[in-house]
Write a structure and sequence with these properties.
Helix 2 packs across helix 6 and helix 3 packs antiparallel against helix 7. The chain contains 10 helices and no strands. The chain is elongated, with a radius of gyration of 27 Å. It starts with about 25 loop residues before the first helix and ends with a helix. The protein has helices at about 25-40, 45-75, 80-105, 110-125, 130-165, 195-240, 265-315, 320-360, 370-385, 400-430. The protein is an all-alpha fold and about 425 residues long.
Amino acid sequence: MRRFRIQIPNQRDSKFDMSLSYSKDFSIVISSFFMKCVGIWSATNRVEQRVRNITLIYTVFTILFSVWIQTRDLYFSWGDFGTCTYIACNILCLNMGLFKIFILFLHKTKFLDLVTYMRTNFWQSNYVPEEQMIFTSWTRICTYFICFFTFFTEASIICYVIRPVVANIGRNESDRILPFNMWLDLPLSLTPYFEVTFILQVLSLYHVGICYICTDNFLCIMNLHVAGQFRILQYRLECIQKSKCKSGERDENSKACSSYSDKKCYTTFKNCIQQHQALIAYCDKLEEVFKVIVLAQVAIFSVLICFVGYQVALADLSSTRRITFVNLLTSSMCQLFMFTYSCDCLIRESTNVATAIYAIPWMDLRVEKYGKLLRKDMQLAIMRTNRPCCLTANGFFPVSLQTYTNILSTAMSYFTLLKQSTDEATSTKSV
């Protein structure tokens, strides 16, 4: 992937150089912290690499341990539809987190290359004030999404922990419950088994929550930052038409020269095309890393939202468990909207580059060397932008906000069928 530094002539007279300190961006700080907790992050030395490997092994062991607990609980609870749907929600979240970590591990080198390229060319680039405003606006959107999604996910985790604590108030030592059922031939409700098991489940639960959100956070950040770079590219193309030739310059026919046919203007446009090509290459590698994860997200979200909605609306639950699933439903809806909206922004901003190119006053170009070259390159660039950059579900279809509405529609259809089946089963038992 080619690295580039775009310098636009006649646009940096103010000498405004702002090197962005990405470490001060909350969304990037918290997302990189979560990736380090999972174990998929770059290391500067052997000791750090060893720590990353141990953390990754701990992550996989924790998720597998949690899947084992939920699978045994599903086996011993088979026949209770409400309990089975509750366990199914947990298993879907666990498997989704494990699958995303597995895919990122397979593409670890490519993923870290994407992060390094984004840090070097997006976060630490020098922008003029107008470009900095564009960059800041997209960074702010990232922060809103990451904070909202992380808050409701962490709230769900806290509710999973608080529910048994509240339920155990006033109970005997032999009647205490854990956050998740463990079907073992041990007195798990008695001290010290209860305390040890409770701590193990809480630690596993928190780490599973981190695995659940870390990949989506970085996917959202990458999509929105690339979309912001496409918007900055549009601004740089718009600046070409604002250029003026020196008032004293005249051509051989004593006509005022056109700045749009000037060599300097053509060089600026060429730099913009190089930036466009680099962004396209970046999107291709982003698609290569995340396309399978996106497909899994789209396939699972309909079922997950259906089961969580059933727990909230139809299941006979305690107030604490209902609050837990309200937070989980809100988190799932935010997660779905976050990654579909970021993919939609990528499509829209990459398509809008064609409008910015066409807005260049190409009719004022003189019929000479650089005028002809500029017209030809504009045609090729507009033809390329007719195929927008996007993320697909493993090549089956592009992901956009239309995908968000389709998933919600499918989830509602599943929920309706589930409700009808439950009503029929209830009426049959009553008869």
